[in-house]
Structure formats: structure tokens, C-alpha cells
């Protein structure tokens, strides 16, 4: 489990692709990988992956076909920057919201503009996630825990404070770029229970 508080911006060193599987090698800049064991979970752009090999400042992880198809990891190129967060330790402080690292789907950036110190980013509303993306609710975008400023049937928007602009990759994304979305797990369960209660 993760919190959506990005620990580091890593760099893709190499990509080995075979059909719809990928092996990623990523260099971390700030994270101390000595404390992470092979087999541990790490979120890359909000996608929960397993560390399969590691060195002092880099690790390898495999992307399976389902993840290839449903996330933006298939679009990564060498030297791309990625958001990194290690799984929260059982005695760790919880700062963001419950993020599982299970991406629901991707969407595109429609607009971006400055509102004083905040960078406002507007995204296309995925039809399947309309009931789970609500104004003032939580969402993980490329693994970043954010509050939804506004949501309607066509789009939703979030705001990045200066710290978030500097500590994660989202501020560098441009109109049309693809991002990973993970809605609040509580919204998923509520929607499921409402569906069951109809029968």
C-alpha cells in the first residue's frame, strides 16, 4: 500500500520489451534502496511493481501484459522521469490517502493554467470512472495523491502547489500527455455496494 506522497523522481535507464511485457531498469536519486529487498513493492508512476533486482541506486522491475495495456508505462522511453514511492512501512506515518498502486485506466491532459501559485491541470473524465471522481474527493494521478477541485461529466481538475510542482513529474506534462489514474478505493466499494443493493 502507498500514500501518494512521492519520494523521488527516478530516471529510466533501460527498457527491454517483448510483445506486451517490459523489463524496466530505473535509477533512483534520493531513495536509499539498501533498505528495499528484492521482492518488495515500489510504485512507478503510481503502478505497483515488484523489485526483481537492485544495485546501490537502481532497480529492475517487470511489467506484465495487463499493466502494459492499462497504464502509461508502455509509453516510457529511456531517460524519462518517473515518480517513485516505496510501500508504506507498517509503523510509517500516513500522509496522503490510501493508494493501492492498481491503476484503473489512463486519461489525457486537456488544459493547464496558472492560478497564482497553483498550477491547475484539467483532465478528460473517463466514462467508467465518473461515479468515483467527485469534487473534493481524492485521486492518484501518476501516483500523486491529489484533491479534485471540480468534476463533471466531461472533465475534472486538480491543483498543484509549488512543492508538488517540484517534487513530482506531473507539472512537466503537456496537453495531450497520458497519465495514470487510480480512484479512491472507498469510492470503489461504495459504488459496488450500491450496485448490489439494486438487486
Instruction: State the separation between the terminal residues, measured CA to CA.
Output: 32 Å
Uncertain stretches of 5 or more adjacent residues: none
CATH topology of the largest domain: Elongation Factor Tu (Ef-tu), domain 3
How much of the sequence lies in strands comes to 35-45%
| Helix/strand order | EEEEEHEEEEEEHEH
Question: Overall 3D geometry?
Answer: globular
Taking the sheet with the most strands, its summary is: 6 strands, antiparallel, barrel
- The CATH architecture of the largest domain can be given as Beta Barrel
The tally of domains stands at 2
Oligomer: single chain
| Mean pLDDT over all positions | 94
Q: Please give the share of residues in helix.
A: 10-25%
Describe the structure.
- With 199 residues, the protein is mainly beta.
- The chain has two domains: 8-86, Elongation Factor Tu (Ef-tu), domain 3, CATH 2.40.30; 105-197, Elongation Factor Tu (Ef-tu), domain 3, CATH 2.40.30.
- Helices cover 13% and strands 42% of the residues.
- The protein is built from three helices and twelve strands.
- It has helices at residues 65-70, 162-167, 185-197, and strands at residues 8-18, 21-27, 41-44, 47-54, 58-63, 81-86, 105-115, 118-124, 138-141, 144-151, 155-160, 178-183.
- The strands form two sheets. The protein has a six-stranded antiparallel beta barrel with strand order 1-2-5-4-3-6. It has a six-stranded antiparallel barrel with strand order 7-8-11-10-9-12.
- The two termini are 32 Å apart.
- The model has no long low-confidence stretch (mean pLDDT 94).
Amino acid at each position: 500500500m502507498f500514500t501518494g506522497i512521492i519520494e523521488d523522481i527516478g530516471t529510466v535507464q533501460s527498457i527491454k520489451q517483448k510483445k506486451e511485457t517490459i523489463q524496466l531498469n530505473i535509477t533512483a536519486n534520493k531513495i536509499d534502496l539498501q533498505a528495499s529487498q528484492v521482492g518488495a513493492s515500489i510504485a512507478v508512476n503510481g503502478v505497483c511493481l515488484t523489485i526483481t533486482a537492485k544495485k546501490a541506486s537502481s532497480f529492475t522491475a517487470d511489467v506484465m501484459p495487463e499493466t502494459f495495456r492499462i497504464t502509461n508505462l508502455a509509453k516510457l522511453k529511456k531517460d524519462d522521469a518517473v515518480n517513485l514511492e516505496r510501500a508504506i512501512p507498517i509503523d510509517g506515518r500516513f500522509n496522503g490517502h490510501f493508494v493501492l498502486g492498481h491503476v484503473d485506466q489512463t486519461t489525457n491532459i486537456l488544459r493547464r493554467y496558472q492560478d497564482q501559485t497553483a498550477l491547475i491541470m484539467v483532465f478528460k473524465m473517463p466514462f467508467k470512472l465518473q461515479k468515483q471522481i467527485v469534487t473534493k474527493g481524492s485521486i492518484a494521478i501518476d501516483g500523486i495523491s491529489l484533491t479534485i477541485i471540480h468534476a463533471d461529466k466531461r472533465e475534472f481538475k486538480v491543483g498543484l502547489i509549488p512543492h508538488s510542482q517540484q517534487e513530482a513529474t506531473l507539472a512537466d506534462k503537456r496537453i495531450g500527455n497520458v497519465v495514470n489514474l487510480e480512484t479512491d478505493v472507498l469510492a470503489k466499494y461504495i459504488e459496488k455496494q450500491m450496485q448490489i443493493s439494486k438487486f
